[in-house]
Each structure stands twice: as structure tokens, then as C-alpha cells.
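$ fold --in a.seq
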Amino acid sequence: MCGIVGYIGKRNAYPILIKGLHRLEYRGYDSAGIALVDDEGALNVYKCKGKVAALEHFVETKNLGGSIGIAHTRWATHGVPNDVNAHPHCSVSENIALIHNGIIENYRVLKDALEANGYTFRSTTDSEVLVNLIEYIRSTNCCTLLEAVQQALKQVIGAYSIAVIERGNRDEIIAARKSSPLVVGIGEGEYFLGSDPASLIEYTNNFVYVKDGEVALIRRNHPLKLVTLDNRESKIDIKQLELSISQLEKGGYPHFMLKEIYEQPKTIVDCIRGRVNPDSGNVKLSGVIDNRERFLRARRIIFVACGTSWHASLIGEHLIENICRIPVEVEYASEFRYRNPIIHPDDIVVAVSQSGETADTLAAVELARKAGAFVFGICNVVGSSISRATDSGAYIHVGPEIGVASTKAFTGQVTVMAMLALTIGKELGTVSDDYFHEVSQALLELPDKLTEVLKLDAQISELSKIFTYAHNFIYLGRGYNYPTALEGALKLKEISYIHAEGYPAAEMKHGPIALIDNEMPTVVIATPDHTYAKTVSNMEEVKARGGRIIAIIAHEDEQVRRIADYCIEVPVVTECLMPIVVSVPLQLLAYHIAVNKGRNVDQPRNLAKSVTVE
């Protein structure tokens, strides 16, 4: 979750580090800190509770000299957010400083051993244990900092990406990774370190992705060196990342989330470009075509995902079973990895993650690979851990998503799943030509449909004022739009802190209907589909209990308009793609309610963008 950034080179490190922290603040914003080694070799560590702006204010009168440094923005795991628990952490002697993303599971055992050797601790974090373990090994064995880090990490159980510097050494950063992302950016006579390459794109587009179990030796005026914990040297593989700074800025919007909602017509174009032929209507995903035989003989398909990606996967289940007639299961990755699942070599496991770094999903990928299954990744971030760990896959190509609450990634994931289903169905011969072309044509029309939906923004903004102070919401949908109801409820929970639940509309009468009254708004997705009449009946049941209904409906749907209290009219596409259209007004409704309540929309409390810890 947390954000890591580092620099060593010819320039003053502080401005680079602080800008990197701002770019990484979506990964954690409980506290922030920075460590610099100045030109005299002094190690200066500054940290405080709060956002990066608070750190900037705190260091205004401090010594910020030095061309080497590390910095961190935190999402708390061990220890409450405060000045002491903020990173960087220093060893007892204050000679070594460390930043850490991840969780050291056996920190208590290590801490007890260090305390038995006279070490004391200021914080309640697992990270401070690690920096003192490194110092203990370094002083006891009279070894180099690299060797101390290697030996310390051999004793660690858990996940980590770390960066370490020391007093008196202005020429070296040691960094390492296990199950948490870490990249080294390579410039002209300088190196950059980060947990996300996007934070460093202003300075270089050449990156080395540190692999699990590797330690990076980053030295001034020396080539980058990667070694294992046993000191075997690894090959340096430099990747080029194509990304523009404008994609990381708000571009005049008040929040990243609103910008990303408005980007969706364009991101759908980018997602289908080169995959859906506008002339022939043919749909092709190379990740499927290149592995055609695996898909043709698939016994079943298992989606593993978390959060919004899990909701998208539920729609993927409908798409693939309907179009391909292959059995599909959708699993929470966090449950899948721990329940000894039955996986066959002829299964296909589809791992879905916006960041490509989600810890539970990545662990599920490794489990599936060990069982011999073919693993297909659906990710957004190029070069991410899941994209490198899977056998094949497809990027959603929606660009950086900075707002913590996912919007354009959700619609991009569902779009890729529709193309996945069409490509497999075509190869299997399970989809008719007419339906294939109906859906492919609808994919091409989606950007215009979403542009039309965005014109409802002002109407939804006014509607949101009525419900800003509601304490609970229920979202109802059926078929393809039941997962959309779940996603709409999640968006509201995430950014407004209003309790909301999504249900299949027919399940409402099996319990949740007890909650219905005139204080409980009910959002109903009532667009035309094969369950439309049943959904209308469910709405009547809500009204009979005095409930107030916000309905998402098709243009000129007078039947639902007569029942609902408020209606949001959206354009209609083929049924299987309606979740993409419907999700946009639900995103806008959540956004405007949160803004009305004065919430920090882009950085909601207790959340971070990329969940890289369990």
C-alpha cells in the first residue's frame, strides 16, 4: 500500500523525493517522511503524521541538503498513524534509515530477540524491527550494508519492499523486494527508486522491475546491480514505459475521480483499439488467439479478484457462460488462496487487478500456476507483477487511475471481459454470427453512449443534494446488473462513508426489505433486459413499504417513471454491456454526494489505491 521513492545522483534529492511522494500519495496518506544524507555525511530524518503537504511544512526550516535520499508515504498496518510510527525508521544508533512497504509477519519474534540483546524501540511498527535487525547484523558481523540487508531478509517472514541508507555513506542505496512492487528508474548518471514507475516518469522512462527475492545495489557512478539474498547476480532487464505527465495531473478537474469518470469515453476507445475491427466487426484478443488450444479445451474458467475487480469478474462470469458456454466461478482472491481450492491443469484462472500488484490476487496466481492451470491476467499497469507472473493476458489500457475509488478501470475491465468472451466464443463456435456482431457493434458505440451519459452530470449533482444526509442506501439490480448494483454501493461507501449494500433485486424480500422505509433510499437499475418485468415488481414492493426509489432507466420508460421518485435516463445498448453504461451515473451519484459531505474524494479515509499487503 505505502509509497516508496528514492534518489541518488547529481541533483538535490529533496525536490525529487517530495514530488514523488505527491504522486504516490494515492498509495497511503496517514503520514509521510524523508531521509537525506547531506554532503558531509550527516543522516537527516524528518517525518510527521498527515499528508505530504504537512511534511513539506514541517521541513521548511530544516537542512534539506544532499543528493541521496529516500522517502515514504504511509498506509498504516502496525501502529496508529502518528509522528513516531511514520517512516523512515532509524536504528537505535541512528546510523541506518529504512522505509518499508509490506508486513513482517514474524516481527514479534525478531523484536524479542533484539530486545534480549539490548535494543529498544520507539515505535510500534514491524518496520523498526527490521532496521534494527539490519544494524545488529552489520555491527555483529562487521559486514557491508548490502550483506547485512541480505542476511536480515533471510530471517524475515512476510512481504516487503524496502530502501536503506546509512550515515556517512552518500553513495549507496540498498533496496529489496518480496511480494511488493519496486522499480529502479535509470537516468543519466542518476537513479530513481519507486513503488510505482508513474511517480518517476517525469525523470526517466527506463525502468528495471526488481523481482521477488532480489536486492538492488544502487551506487553513485556505478552500474545498477541486482543480486539474490544468496548474492547470485541477476540479469538487468530495462523496460521502457510510455506515459505522459498530463495523465498524472488533474487537468482542471477538482478531483482525479471526476477526471477519470469523464475520461471513460476515451478509455473505452483505447481499450478496444486494435481489438475490435470497425469495418468487419471482428473481435480479437491476441492473448487468446496465441493460446487457442488452452481455451478450446478449458474445463472451466475461474476469476480471482478483489473489490471492484471482483464485481467486474461477476459480470465476466455472465458474459463467458452466456457466450462461451464454459462453466465459470468467481472467487475472492483472499479466500481462494487459503482454502485449498481444487484446480485442474485444464482450468483457466483469470486474475483481475487494476494495479497488477494486489497481494492476494498475486498469491492466487502463484497457487494456480503451481497447480498447472493456465493463468490469464487482466491488468491496467504495464509491467506489473501480475502481468509478468501470468501465462498470457490483456491490458485494459485506461491509463493511470489515481483516485482511490476505481471508475474507469471497472469499465475497462468489463470491456476486456466482453472481448474475451467474444473471442473465445468465436473460436469455440458457441456464439451466433448475429449476436457476435451485435455485441461487437455495441462495443464500438460505447464511447458515444458514455459521452451521452456524462451530459447527465448536472442533473445527478442536483439529485445528490436530496440524499446527501441519508445514513443507508440499498442498490438493486438483476442479471448483468446485479454486480453493477454491488459496485454502485461500493462507490458510495468508499468515498461518502454512507453505509450501502447491493442486492439481487429478487433477494430483497428475503431479508433486506425489513430495512425499507422513507429514510432508506433505494437505487434500482431498471434498464430493459430479460428480467425487466420482475424488476418492476420488486420496485412496487419497495414503494408498498414507503421506500423512496432512484431508478436508472431507459429513455422514455414511462412505466418505471410512474413508480420511481427520481429517474436517471440512460441510453440503451445490448444487454450484456449495460453495466458499463449504468455504472457511470452511479459513479457520479457517489461522487457528488461525497463532495456535498465535504469528503476527500480522491483519498478516502482508511483506504489506499493499491492493496499490496494482506
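$ fold --in b.seq
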Amino acid sequence: MSFPADFLDELRSRIRISEVVGRKLKLIKRGREFLALCPFHNDSKPSLSVVDEKNFYHCFACGAHGDIVKFTMETEGLNFIESIDKLADLAGLEVPKQDPMERAKEIHRRTLREVLEEVTIYFEEFLRKASNKAGLDYLKERGLSDKTIKSFRLGLAPANSKTFRIDMEERGIQEKLLEEAGLIKKSAGSSSTYDYFRGRLIFPISDRRGQIIGFGGRALNNQEPKYLNSPETSLFHKGHILYQGEMAREVAHKTGQLIVVEGYMDVISLAEAGISNAVAPLGTALTEGQIRELWKSSTEPIICFDGDSAGVRAAVRAADRLLPILEPGFSARFSSLPPGEDPDDIVKRGGANKFMELVEKSIGLSEFFWETEKSIGSLDTPEKQAAFFKRIRNRVGEIRNQNVREAYKDLVESKIVNFRVSMRMDNNGTGGLYQSNLRSNGYKPIRSSISNRAARANITQTMERRQKQAILAAFLMHPSLVEDFGEALGYLELGDPFLDKLRLDILDIHADEESLSSHYLKKRLFERGYTNNFEGVLEDKALAHIAFAGPGVAIQKAKDGVRELLSRIGKYQLEEQIALATNAVMDDLNEVNWNRLSSLRAALVSVNGGSNLEDPV
């Protein structure tokens, strides 16, 4: 028994592989993938890689490989049809009945695809041969080359209301099929029909397999609406499709970036400038279905809408749509364009590099969400501030996923505390009206808000260095910690030349000796030119604040303290390196790449307290 290809495509597109695997196994988020203990062999370390953007799982140890259907079959003992039934229920899809009528519908859908392909060729040809060169002239004026026009298969629909139907009839395509494909429409109140895309530039729209399923049309005169999409058909479902999604997917996978712009021409102009990882919603606000489609190619797509008021409103609506459906590891970033400008303006004025500079300055959803709510009104009174805090807490409550909601709660409460501190400092310095009045009468504040910010930055830097010193102090006083945390220390980058050199020298000396005392380790380090207090690492006033690093401290207390600091400072470094190492293994599975990945995983396990699984999905 077979199922229609469209149904299977829709099933796979609605359910991420991590959702299916995560119901059976505990997943660890690592960069753009997940890791888990493989259920298909006796796995002691996570070797099963789960990749949403490719919709497959793969075990690097036993070679198990497949998609959501195969995983369901092999872990639940179901046959193909039973697995499809279960997954369809999870996806909220009705399983098509495989009777002669359904098979006839599938054949009919294939026929519609063939019609749309034929129509695409027709529109392409008409763009070139039309006596009115307005369409081609417009594209040339927008700076598009022949190569780009052909690559995007741009076309033109005849302006006459009957030319298209007559030409299609000559090609043997029935009017009924044209109507079902959304290419002709019935007139209101009569049985007569008219061409849907009259006198418009044509933008073919493809599905995930690259097959044409509909069109977008841009008016070349004062015709309204300016942009027009195909109506909903058995193939075309606007809320689940992204313009050029199938073309951008491969580039997004290589670069780790997917850019979301407002319209067709934005995508095409960026491609002309050499930026091929952009997609666009189909002339409407970003839908939940389109967001989930974005997440298949990028866990954090970058929203880059126009710099006018409409573009700002569209970005805010996108954030509103994103917030409730956030999931662990899946979010978005927001890039701001200069007022009144779109991506095409940017690349024409400053080239691709200028546009990418703006993209690189994008901010995360949490920051965008905070700043958006903050900008709704003035915050110059306690009452207005309280209303802002209440509003933003209520918004966090909209997040459905408990883990993400709790993380946002922690972040928001931290930002509220910082905001209050900042407001107090501003009011004590240069921020408030009262202070302004005082200054106008000769009062000079002791410290400005600028110096307050500088002081806070200095305190933060000092604390970070103290924590890094504390880690090394513990290793100097308890060399046996290398047995538990040596791999993590080896991969940790402290960002300080002296501390990094000391870190590597400790590991180097330990590699030559099976068992080291603190006294002997320090003696060996003195031979390498270090001073008694190791530039402050072991000075008394520093050790007084490091309860776990003293010479008389029990080794378990020292382990707990080091693990906590390594987790705070080094966990994210390790996760980033694991993501890179995993990609290297996927590109080239050799002993060197695999050993590095295994070593990094072991380092992260030690930092996580001996558990090799965390962040369950």
C-alpha cells in the first residue's frame, strides 16, 4: 500500500525528527543538532546524532540511519502503515484512504504539477517575446542580470484577459485544470472566467522538492493589489510556504544563517548581490507554519524586514507569533535596517558586505521583545515602570514550553533588577528631571551614569578574572583534579595569556607524572619561571574568597567547586566546540575527528557532574 507523495512530504514537514526521537530518548542540544544514547546498540556514550534540518538520525557507532517513519517502525515494532497512522495522528493529519478514487486524485495532482511547469515555461517565454517590454525593462532597472532572471524563472502574464487561456488551449491544457491550479477565475455572478494574473510580473513558487506549486504576481501599473498570490489549491498552501525556501536551504546549512526578508524582490536582489540564503513569506505576516519551516533550515533565522513603519510592525508581529511557540534551541534574531530602506537599497548603496554588517549586528528575540515592550511608552514614573514590568511578565506567560518559559522568566527578572539599578544610578547622576533642576542651580553630581556603567563593567571583569584564577588555584592545591577535569581544562580558553599558559603548563607537567602532590607541581612550575603567588592566583586575599581551593579542603568539596565554575565559564565553549566537531565528523568520519568529538563530549560530561545527558526535549 502506498501513500501520495504530497501527503508524505506534508507529514515529514510537520514533525521534526527530534520530536519523534525525543519521545523515546533523552536528547542533548548540541549546536544545530541533538545527541542521544543510540537505542540500536549497547551505547554507553551518546553516539546517535539527530539533525532536524536534514530530518534524519544517524549513529556514528553502529551506522543506524533513517527518518521519522523508520525510527517509529524500528523502536515501536510497527509496520509501515501503522507507523504512518501514528505519525499522522501526531501531526494532526488525516491519512488518505488508498482506494481507486484516492489514487486518481494523486494522479490528478501530478497532472496539476505538470500544468504548472508548462505554465511557468510559458510565462518565461512571454517575458522575452511580449511586444510590451515593460516587464523586462522593470527587472533590468532593478539591476537584475539575465542569469538571475533565468535562475528565478521570472516571467510575465499577458495583459489581455483571454490571451493566456487561448494560448493554453492551443497547448492542449484544459480550462478546468487551469481553474483548479488557480490560474483562471470565475467572474462574480456569472459562469464566465478570466485570467487571474493579468499584465503582472510572475514569480514562480516552489515546494520543498523544487516543484512549482503556485505563483506570485507583481503589478506593472497602478493595478491593485500591488502583489497577488495564487489562491489556495490542492498544491498551494500559502501559510506553510516560503519563497525560495528550497534554494536557500543548502546555503543556510553551510553558513548556519537563514535571512528572512519581506518580499520576492528582496530575495532576488540579495541573490543578485551574492547573498543566496534569503527567503520571504508570501506577502503576509509570518505564520506559525512558516516559522516551523524556517526552523528546519536554521534554529535561529534572522528577521530582516524593511526599515519603514510597515516593516517594523511586521517584525513586531513576527515576534508576537514566535513567542508562544518557542522551543528549547529554536528562536530568531532581528536585524534593523536604516529608516525607510529595504535590503535592495542597502546592497545597491554599499554592496553585500554592508548588508551583512547589518545582519551581523542582529539581536536575539529576548532583547527585541524587551526593547519592543519598553518602547511602548515613557518610563519616567514608578507607575509606568510597574506597568511595563507587569506587561512583560504577562507576555512571558504566553510561552507554551515550560523550559523556555522558565528561562525567559529568569532573564526578565534579571533585566528588571538591572533596569531598576540603572534607573537609580541615572537618578543619582544625570538621568532624572530632579537632578537636571539641581544641576541648573549649581549642583554637580558626584558620578555620572557613564562612570557608573564603567564601574559596573570593571566589577564584572574583575569577578570573571577571579573565577578563572579560582579554577587554577584549585588545580595547584589539588593536582588530582586533573583526573576528573583534565579534558575540560584542556579545551577551556581563559582569554588571558598568563592564565592560559599556566593552564597548559599544569596539564603538561601532569602528563609526565602519574601522581603529583601540590608541592611537587609548584616546584616544577617554579622551574619554568613562575613566582610564588603565580601573579595573584595564590595570594592570600584571593584564596580567602575561594572556599574550595584551600590546602586543607576535602577533595570532594574541591571537585564540586571546580565543577560549578567550569560549568559557568566553560560549558558554552565546550558546546560550541562540540557542534563544530560534530559537523567535522558528519563531513568526514575519520579516527581523528571522531576522537576529538569523543574527547569533547567527555569533557562536557565532567563539567555536567558526570551525567552524559542534559537539556531534555
